[in-house]
Amino acid sequence: MQPKYKRVLLKLSGESLAGKEGHGIDFDTVLKICRPIKTCSLMGVQIAIVVGGGNFWRGRSNGQMDRTRADHMGMLATAINALGVADALEQLGMQVRVQTAISMQEVAEPYIRNRAVRHLEKGRVVIFGCGTGNPFFSTDTAASLRAAEIEADIILKATMVDGVYDADPKINANAKKFDTLSYMDVLSKDLKVMDSTAASMCRDNHIPICVFSLEDPENIERVICGQSIGTVVKE
Ligand code: UDP
């Protein structure tokens, strides 16, 4: 298989790192996800990753706390995941750098766009932690922001479902999967692909998004090599 893209931004939700437990990090699951990342990197594809934090904490789900503080906790959760994914990639022999949007220089590099691009050009995988560094945003928005900054060809949004449906496929057996969608469809039909801030950012910066299932982590390689799986959101 030959890669279709030169530089991709892979969004891994926190949930995807949790395995069957549904919480925390399952290291075998993380290793399974990292193997196709390595394969693609060895094919010459530049790979940046934005990790979520929902396997530990989501700011918006906590109604009892001040939202800003709860979101700070969520961003720290993404830093834990970034380190977990970095460790797995390193165990597979990869060169990795973690950059965080909130400074924690004893633990990771601060986010510096040009340095991130330089790492990518040298074949290192770059993992972005702490989302955008701001409360009231999501890691999907961080993915669209970083993809625009590093001029990624596409955002690969790995999820627990195999694409975007017109209804919840777990509830409605007649739910129809879309092969392609426009950004406007996502925004106007309120399809649960990503939040509207992230979708608008992708639309304004002409960044396509491929939503696909991580149930089989080899899908990462399939998508990067241009196989039509999942749902592609574009103009
Ligand atoms: N978060 C934030 N700003 C950001 C990105 C994330 O405040 O730019 C916080 C927010 O509380 C969010 C949590 O980090 O709920 C985890 O991120 P997200 O919910 O996007 O993770 P995922 O659902 O992808 O695992």
From TrEMBL:
Domain Aspartate/glutamate/uridylate kinase: 6-213
InterPro entries per the UniProt record, alphabetical: AceGlu_kinase-like_sf, Asp/Glu/Uridylate_kinase, Uridylate_kinase, Uridylate_kinase_bac
SUPFAM superfamilies, alphabetized: Carbamate kinase-like (SSF53633)
Gene Ontology biological process terms in this record: 'de novo' CTP biosynthetic process; UDP biosynthetic process
Source species: Caproicibacterium argilliputei
Any one GO MF annotation of this record: UMP kinase activity
Pathway the protein acts in: Pyrimidine metabolism; CTP biosynthesis via de novo pathway; UDP from UMP (UMPK route): step 1/1
Protein name: Uridylate kinase
Function: Catalyzes the reversible phosphorylation of UMP to UDP.
UniProt binding sites for ATP: 11-14, 54, 58, 159, 165, 168
Pfam families found in the cross-reference section: AA_kinase
Entry keywords, A to Z: Allosteric enzyme, ATP-binding, Cytoplasm, Kinase, Nucleotide-binding, Pyrimidine biosynthesis, Transferase
Catalytic activity: UMP + ATP = UDP + ADP
Major place of residence: cytoplasm
Subunit details: Homohexamer.
UniProt EC number: 2.7.4.22
Residues bound to UMP: 53, 71, 132-139
Enzyme class: transferase
Region ranges (Involved in allosteric activation by GTP): 19-24
Cellular compartment(s): Cytoplasm
CDD domains given in the database record: AAK_UMPK-PyrH-Ec (cd04254)
Free-text activity regulation comment from the record: Allosterically activated by GTP. Inhibited by UTP.
UniProt family annotation: Belongs to the UMP kinase family.
GO cellular component: cytoplasm
NCBIfam families given in the database record: pyrH_bact
Gene that produces this protein: pyrH
